């Protein structure tokens, strides 16, 4: 059982009206932005189920865009986000869908630009979020830990090399989640850590053989 | 330090060390290594300031919510010239609860304490009482930490989300937290505070979450002043040494079970209760299109 803290109970300070549909949406946007880690040309937001049905009244669309633009959950500009200069700098589009295989509060971010990336996540209640999929890989990101996302060739020994490099950086692994598209095909690793990783360690990870994608996804501010 | 995961453990730890609830809570969090006393006090101060700002803005605003269904109730209450039978502090509590809830609808800045839908309850009780009784900022922070500890202990057993436990888990818990904060500020003992929590929670068991049009609006806005006054009742009874015959930890277990037994139609899905009344369906047609 995860212990909650008093801080979770008496915060966040946020723009209303809903922790799941507004603050959760901003946090999903912020985490998706941290995953993409570049300025996109265009973002398409696909909102599902309750997010699609009641999102407008809760400002879910505004929250998602605000997050992608880097606004924090308590920013009062969220209310008028479509009119901000930041919003006018990118192209964006919303789609409202129903899919009962998805979480009631699910969203896909489709980033287009130098790199194309799809990030999927759910707002799981009380402002807590979970990014569940990045491109085709299942992940488990809640924004509470700095996280390393790796995509590589599914070969023996990669996990050991990676964890060895992280250990050499004197960093503790809080959780490790692996997935692959098939035996010997693309594999992914999602590593949540305590503390921060050095640039050298990240470079060493990028230099590993058979490594395609190395992303360092920063945790969200409280 | 011993575990503090239940109210029973909290009570005995306070008793053994001769400490208040907020002191034990701060010691416990520090012992867990995640948050220092300084960090928690800093967040409490930040939250308290944001609560006061929301009240101040909300009291003077009549801008309607995006749906157009609400936004002027706080103004109406303040302008009422009917003599209140409750007295000035409870009147103030109701006005502050409406002010905050209406600010929430306008996408204003509020504190989710514990959730956005229940954001008016703790600030209303805490700040109205503090203003009328010259409670120092430091004591207000202590009261907010006491409330936070109550929320934390309930959250250890069940998620504070309408979709999981119904409104009892949102406005109900906010009311219990407020009862604790109020009893703390009134100089109540640890036992009295814990009984105030038990009495508040016990008397909202079964409260459903059936928001009209799926928006945090009807009945949420007006439910905030109701459950703020509910907290006052709990504190009044507890200060008179009235005891909850069912101990608080068992009340929380009952609340969790009640939440599980509650139909999903009544848990933030807007598929039953008030959300499916004739009027709600008509509103839905007008608003969501």
Number of helices of chain A: 7
**Order of strands across the biggest sheet of chain A?**
3-2-4-5-6-7
Mean pLDDT over the residues of chain B: 96
- How many DSSP helices of chain B? 13
| Coarse structural class of chain A | alpha+beta
Largest sheet of chain B: none
Percentage of helical residues of chain B? 55-70%
The major pleated sheet of chain A works out as:
6 strands, mixed
Please give the alpha-carbon distance between the first and last residues of chain A.
Answer: 21 Å
Rg for CA atoms of chain A: 18 Å
Structural class of chain B: mainly alpha
CATH class of chain B: Mainly Alpha
Number of strands of chain A: 11
Termini gap of chain B: 56 Å
Shape of chain B: globular
Order of helices and strands of chain A: HEHEHHHEEEEEEHEEHE
Helix share of residues of chain A? Answer: 25-40%
Domain module count of chain B: 1
Secondary-structure element string of chain B: HHHHHEHHHHHHHH
Blueprint (SSEs and pairs):
The complex is a heterodimer of chains A (222) and B (289).
Chain A: H1 6-9, E1 13-15, H2 19-36, E2 42-48, H3 49-58, H4 60-68, H5 85-88, E3 91-97, E4 106-112, E5 117-125, E6 128-134, E7 137-141, E8 146-153, H6 158-168, E9 173-180, E10 186-193, H7 199-207, E11 211-217
Parallel strand pairs in A: 2-3
Antiparallel strand pairs in A: 2-4, 4-5, 5-6, 6-7, 8-10, 8-11, 9-10
Chain B: H1 7-17, H2 21-31, H3 37-59, H4 73-79, H5 88-105, E1 109-111, H6 121-132, H7 137-155, H8 162-165, H9 171-185, H10 190-202, H11 220-239, H12 248-261, H13 278-287
Helix pairs in contact in B: 1-2, 2-7, 3-5, 3-7, 4-5, 5-6, 5-11, 6-7, 6-9, 6-11, 7-9, 9-10, 9-11, 10-11, 10-12
Task: Describe the model.
The complex is a heterodimer of chains A (222) and B (289). Chain A has 222 residues and is of the alpha+beta class. Chain A has seven helices and eleven strands. In chain A, the strands form two sheets. In chain A, strands 3-2-4-5-6-7 form a six-stranded mixed sheet. In chain A, strands 9-10-8-11 form a four-stranded antiparallel sheet. In chain A, helix 2 packs parallel to helix 4. Chain B is mostly helical. Chain B has a single domain, classed as 2-methylcitrate dehydratase PrpD. In chain B, helix 1 (7-17) crosses helix 2 (21-31) and helix 6 runs parallel beside helix 9 (171-185). Classes of the chains: A alpha+beta (222), B mainly alpha (289). Strand 1 (13-15) of chain A pairs antiparallel with strand 1 of chain B.
């Amino acid at each position: 059982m995860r212990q909650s803290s008093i801080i979770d109970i008496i915060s966040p300070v946020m723009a209303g009206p809903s922790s799941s549909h507004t603050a959760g949406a901003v946090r999903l946007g912020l985490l998706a932005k941290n995953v993409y880690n570049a300025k996109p040309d265009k973002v398409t937001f696909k909102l599902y189920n309750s997010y699609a049905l009641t999102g407008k009244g809760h400002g879910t669309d505004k929250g998602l865009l605000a997050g992608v633009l880097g606004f924090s959950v308590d920013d009062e500009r969220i209310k008028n986000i479509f009119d901000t200069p930041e919003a006018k700098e990118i192209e964006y589009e919303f789609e409202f869908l129903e899919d009962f295989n998805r979480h009631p509060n699910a969203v896909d971010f489709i980033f287009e630009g130098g790199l194309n990336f799809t990030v999927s996540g759910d707002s799981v209640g009380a402002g807590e979020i979970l990014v569940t999929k990045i491109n085709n890989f299942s992940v488990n990101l809640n924004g509470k830990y700095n996280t390393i996302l790796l995509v590589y060739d599914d070969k023996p020994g990669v996990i050991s090399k990676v964890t060895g490099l992280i250990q050499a950086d004197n960093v503790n692994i809080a959780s490790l989640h692996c997935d692959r598209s098939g035996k010997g095909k693309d594999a992914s690793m999602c590593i949540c850590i305590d503390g921060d990783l050095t640039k050298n360690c990240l470079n060493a990870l990028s230099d590993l053989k058979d490594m395609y994608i190395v992303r360092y996804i920063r945790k969200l501010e409280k | 330090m011993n575990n503090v995961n239940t109210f029973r453990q909290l009570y005995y730890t306070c008793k053994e060390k001769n400490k208040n609830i907020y002191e034990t809570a701060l010691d416990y969090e520090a012992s867990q290594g995640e948050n220092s006393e300084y960090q928690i006090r800093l967040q409490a101060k930040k939250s308290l300031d944001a609560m006061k700002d929301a009240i101040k803005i909300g009291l003077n605003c009549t801008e309607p919510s995006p749906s157009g269904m609400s936004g002027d109730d706080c103004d109406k209450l303040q302008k009422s010239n009917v003599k209140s039978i409750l007295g000035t502090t409870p009147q103030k509590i109701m006005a502050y609860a409406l002010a905050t809830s209406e600010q929430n609808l306008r996408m204003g800045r509020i504190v989710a304490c514990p959730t956005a839908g229940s954001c008016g309850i703790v600030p209303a009780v805490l700040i109205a009482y503090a203003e009328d009784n010259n409670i120092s900022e430091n004591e207000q922070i202590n009261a907010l930490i006491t409330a936070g500890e109550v929320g934390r202990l309930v959250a250890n057993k069940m998620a504070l989300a309408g979709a999981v436990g119904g409104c009892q888990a949102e406005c109900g818990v906010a009311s219990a937290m407020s009862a604790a904060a109020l009893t703390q500020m009134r100089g109540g003992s640890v036992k009295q505070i814990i009984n105030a929590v038990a009495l508040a929670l016990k008397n909202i068991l079964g409260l459903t979450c059936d928001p009209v049009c799926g928006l945090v609006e009807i009945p949420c806005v007006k439910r905030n002043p109701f459950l703020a006054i509910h907290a006052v009742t709990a504190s009044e009874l507890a200060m008179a040494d009235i005891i909850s015959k069912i101990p608080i930890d068992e009340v929380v277990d009952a609340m969790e079970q009640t939440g599980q037994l509650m139909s999903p139609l009544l848990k933030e899905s807007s598929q039953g209760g008030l959300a499916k009344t004739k009027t709600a369906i008509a509103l839905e047609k007008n608003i969501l299109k």
